[in-house]
Amino acid sequence: MTSDPDGEKPLSVPATQASTGLLTDQYEITMLRAALRSGVAPRRAVFEVFARHLPHGRRYGVVAGTGRLLDAVARFRFGPEELGFLSDAGVADEATLRYLEAYAYSGDIWGYAEGDCYFPGSPILVVEAPFAEAVVLETLVLSILNHDCAIASAASRMVTAAGDRPLVEMGSRRTHELAAVASARAAYIAGFDLTSNLRAGHDYGVPTSGTAAHAFTLVHDSERDAFRAQVDALGPGTTLLVDTYDVATAVRTAVEVAGTGLGAVRIDSGDLLVVARQARAELDSLGATKTRIVVSGDLDEYSIAALGATPVDSYGVGTSLVVGSGVPTAALVYKLVARADEAGDSVPLRAVAKRSVGKPGRPGRKWAVRRRDAAGAALAELITTVPADPGPGDRVLLQPLIRDGEIVGRESLEAARSRHREVRAELPVYALQLSRGYPAIPTVFGPDGD
Predict the structure, then answer these.
(1) For the chain, which ranges sit under pLDDT 50?
(2) CA-to-CA distance for 358 and 317, rounded, in angstroms?
(3) Which residues of 133-150 are buried (b: 16+ CB within 10 A; e: fewer)?
(4) pTM of the predicted model, to two decimals?
(5) How far apart are CA 167 and CA 318, in angstroms?
(6) Strand-pair category, 367-372 with 395-396
């Protein structure tokens, strides 16, 4: 496992070393093939990733997936197997195959730092490279960022709802096996404390945790036998699942088996508002006052908030987390905003944008600054077509990620996690409300930084 230079948590490492070249749509190769023929392939171009709007009622989005994207761009290559497929399928002609065989991204990429928040129109990623190099990255960029930003945005709301109580991500059985790993990573950035997914622990250093399923109780001759087996194997600090049959009876049995030092009990069904209180009263009456109560079972940010007044110590969240709490995509787009009229690094860029009804673009390469007051509270997202002049408390949002094809913006997962905690604290208090509302701060577009 690779460690970052500062010896913090492991850096993001790919779940597989396979090429990412075919993680794309055919129209990327179609455009490349035609661009090579027309001669526009080497023209310098700028693409931007942004969301036209936030999901209905959400106050902010969370940037996640940057580390995974850097790994994926580094592995965007076309070897004999990929080239053979493109040739056999008739997708690429000889000129295109030769181009892809030598493909290695050589341009620049800037982006909002992972863990930062974004708003409508925020240019969270800026890609500048020859058109041919940049256009083929569209699907790869969007598939990673749309997923991870959606998960992190939902997770952040759940963290807010939970307050100081820990959250465990346990959604692996409710999504694609690799999406589960990415979801655990994104949730950790947003403030979740643990994951049940071991691959996320291996690949990204996310702390892992696990209890037991009802099957473990059912395979034993009695609930007591199941508890005894688990305690014998893992010690009294383990977490026992107590809702297979009757919760009150199970709690008493659990304490009898593990003693008053029992680590925790987990409740996965029933009216959690009522059952959690009953379990706490039972544990306290038995002297297990330090035994924690973990609840799970189709929780989302709203049910977590509703449990705030109950004696619950932590939450396990599965399905709702890995589907973005009903919003499985961040609705990010990848659009060309500037291009040169001919090849060459010194050729000036011309601002461009489509004029589609309902989907107009904003032309020109963008810069972004978060305006903040003297106390550090966020006031507005300022988007300009020239570098802005930030005030004393303002934050420049776009950071270099890749320069001349070399990754320069890699950082630890802990840095992204810490950043999100700090950035969320900048937002107005109403930004953390779960009720529907407008974006927490306005997005202000201007031609310059004044």
Answers:
(1) 1-16, 449-450
(2) 37
(3) bbbbbbebbbbbbbbbbb
(4) 0.93
(5) 11
(6) antiparallel
